[in-house]
Amino acid sequence: MLRFTNFTYSAIDMKLGLFLTTLALLLMFAVGVVNYYVSYKTDIREYSWAYSSDEKKPLLVGKWSGKFIEPDSIEKNISLEIYEPYTKIERIFYSIGLSNKRRLFIEPNKFDGFLSIENKLRLEEKYKVRGFVNTKNIQLFDFHLLANVKETPPYHYSFLFTEGFWKKNKMSFILTIVFRKSTTPNNLKNQEPFLSKKVRVSLNRVL
Fold this sequence. Notes:
- This protein is of the alpha+beta class.
- The chain is 28% helix and 39% strand.
- It has three helices and eight strands; from the N terminus they run αββααββββββ.
- An eight-stranded antiparallel β-barrel has the order 1-2-3-4-5-6-7-8.
- It is elongated.
- The termini are far apart.
């Protein structure tokens, strides 16, 4: 009889433990859903260039591509991808309390992205970029190169990207190509720019 009683209590304890565990998981899920919704609504307000409750509304984030002609008449393809400040996966982790440094440090007017420039010979230069959206008019932006992905930057010139403007599925900006005297990184005395050329670049959204 005692064995039967102990078995009964053990079964009850197991069911109670299972119930409490399930309840805790459901509560965690409910809190996560609420946090996710609140986070998303907050980001729609703070990052209006990146998120919208209207799925059809054009945003700055996404992939863009086009062509431009350099001052020496060489035509090049250019593609730009602007990342979401926070992906859905990152938002889910943040919602359940597993926040990361990226969410803590990205400001509402900044974005990260990836730039690729390719010539007719299929030679491609790849760069990480960081940009700034005008807080008063989100259709205005600038961005700059962070680093060459292959870590072999062309030291004899550099790019500047200013006066950016986007609307719906069109984008344009001024690309300034700065040429330098030296082609080696260690020759600091000859690193001063000696010539710069500006080109207006137009891109279309990659749908």
